[in-house]
Design goal:
There is one protein chain. The protein starts with a helix and ends in a 22-residue tail after the last helix. Strands 1-2 form a two-stranded antiparallel sheet. Helix 4 packs across helix 6 and helix 13 packs across helix 14. The protein has 14 helices and two strands. By secondary structure, it is mainly α. The radius of gyration is 20 Å and the shape is globular. The longest helix has 16 residues.
């Protein structure tokens, strides 16, 4: 039945999209069609090139932006699926997710999404969803950092609601144990293996001292072979003194702007920055074995990461009946 529906959706899209002016029209009502790779082939063929161009510019100006844009997609998908709810601003009568604890003073890159959306609205108005933009900038950020490439599945709708409570509850915290991480991922339909693969996104980017403060406590250092006293001492020095809230450290000490398997190598030498990183080798035999596999075989990591990104990107896909194509990613359409 699933394959038949997919084929039917493709037929509908092929027949109608040449004449459709928006994705809504191409779908033609609440079909419940799955995501696909040729959604904008006729309605906005320039979409991916436009998105890539803006991401390339942003990353060239600030290499950290790659990790920030990738993180936006993660934080979006973990709250009621990939519906771009993370982009909605608070208003007098609406509370979004930007002020939730995992997002406040942490998420970056909203202006890049605004620039992409503005150009897309000029080229193909109300056609490319903000949720699809987030999924695509995540892929492009990985590619521009030297990581794997995959075909992004398109056709998401933008949500018309948001949940600060779900953002606080669903997004894994940086001090999470393996058990908590597995539970958070399983709650949204992702497996332990997905969790370890997707944690590899921490091979790029930075984190504030406040997010790994528990790693700096002397009580956290044990006789485990995965504790690195010198590494902890260097973090303690970085984060000591006043005004350490704004200080940041590289998530990957050795290749901080390159998407590779070095993150996993670091874990085995006790150089995982966040407690939720280091626990992958110190807190569970099964996750440690997967880490060792990725250390020995970076190709397997890339393949598993691509698969898990596609799987995460399919979470909670909305239909035309309960979603929309926002004209402005920060606000729900007024009419």
């Amino acid at each position: 039945m699933g394959m038949q529906l997919a084929l039917l959706c493709l037929v509908i899209l092929k027949i109608t999209s040449a004449f459709a002016t928006t994705l809504n029209e191409a779908y033609g009502g609440d079909t419940g069609c799955p995501l696909g790779t040729d959604i904008y082939q006729y309605t906005c063929p320039e979409a991916e090139a436009i998105i890539f161009s803006w991401v390339e510019q942003a990353v060239s100006e600030d290499s950290r932006m790659a990790a920030s844009l990738l993180r936006l997609h993660f934080h979006d998908c973990f709250v009621n699926g990939c519906d771009a709810s993370v982009l909605l601003d608070d208003t007098q009568d609406f509370v979004g997710e930007k002020t939730a604890a995992p997002n406040l003073n942490s998420l970056r890159g909203f202006e890049v999404i605004d620039q992409i959306k503005s150009e897309l609205e000029l080229v193909c108005p109300q056609t490319v969803s903000c949720a699809d933009i987030l999924a695509t900038v995540a892929r492009d950020s990985v590619v521009l950092s030297g990581g794997p490439i995959w075909e992004v599945q398109m056709g998401r709708k933008d949500g018309m609601t948001a949940s600060k409570q779900a953002a606080n509850n669903n997004i894994p915290a940086p001090n999470s144990t393996v058990d908590v991480l597995v539970t958070k991922f399983e709650n949204v339909g992702l497996t332990l293996k997905d969790m370890v693969a997707l944690s590899g996104a921490h091979t790029i980017g930075k984190a504030r001292c406040t997010t790994f403060s528990s790693r700096l406590q002397s009580s956290s250092i044990s006789n485990s072979p995965y504790d690195n006293i010198d590494f902890i001492a260097s973090l303690q020095q970085l984060c000591s003194g006043s005004n350490n809230n704004n200080r940041v450290a590289n998530l990957d000490l050795d290749t901080p702007a390159t998407f590779d398997n070095q993150y996993y190598v670091n874990l085995l030498s006790g150089e995982g920055l966040l407690p939720s990183d280091q626990t992958l080798v110190s807190g569970n035999d099964q996750t440690r074995q997967i880490v060792q596999t990725y250390v020995e075989d970076p190709f397997t990591f890339f393949e598993n990461f691509k698969y898990s990104m596609l799987k995460m990107g399919n979470l909670g896909s909305l239909t035309p009946a309960n979603g929309e194509i926002r004209r402005d990613c920060r606000t729900i359409n007024k009419f």
